[in-house]
Amino acid sequence: MTTNDYPSAALRNEISGVARFRAIVGPDGRVSDCEVIETSGSNVLDAATCRLIVRRARFNPALDEGGNPTSGYYTTNVRWMIPLDLPPEPGTSTQSYVVGPDGTLSNCRVKETDGVESSGTSACPAEIMDGSFKDSAGKPVSRRVLVKYQVTLANAPTGTDARPPAPRTWRGTNTLSIAGTRVTEVIVETDGKVSDCRIVKLTGPIAAQVELGTNDCPKRYERGYAAANGELVPTLVRMTETTVIAPVDKRR
């Protein structure tokens, strides 16, 4: 299991816990059944635990007295912990990927400011999107998504310049991208806590579907920012995200 497997509902409500389960393993080494024997305290996390174990776990089966494969069981824990992201680094990067008619992702590429390209799910959105792009007739089609990110850092406002926090709004990680530009300002405290986050500018089609002032940031990052002298300082992070959606070039 990875952080990508964390159930959206549990992330949204910041629910964590430890689920202890017993898996019934068949002679073929596959899990035929799974039961949570000590709850994590969340039905959502318990259900995700067994669903993923049944789908993915493979074992060397138990052996009977004659040395032949037989049914057995396996018991252990899964600890669900809210993942903490690293704070955004200043600079620019460009990400591109293709969303297929069934919502699956492919051809993910990320180019950093130094021109080095990398690919893989760690830099990509969720493996399957919640829906797909459609043509003018309503038929699902493939589309290439190109997203340019720019991050700048500045001293966080203090005193009378400080803003009251905006209410948090959940944005799922597997929702389809919307063309346009959004600018988000985030105040990150020295311990990584996000004391304020809000969308301050919207242009293009996204402006008709997203509200200004929306706070869809995590509550905290893994750490804060340090000044040139190494001292941790409250920091204003300005993130500009420009998304372009285009037909897939069959020649590429």
UniProtKB/TrEMBL annotation:
Residues 1-95 form the TonB C-terminal domain. This is Energy transducer TonB. It is a single-pass membrane protein. It is found in: Cell inner membrane. It comes from the Bacteria. The keyword Ion transport does not apply. Belongs to the TonB family. Keywords: Cell inner membrane, Cell membrane, Membrane, Protein transport, Transmembrane, Transmembrane helix, Transport. It comes from Novosphingobium aquae. Transmembrane segments: none annotated. InterPro entries: TonB-dependent_transducer, TonB/TolA_C, TonB_C.
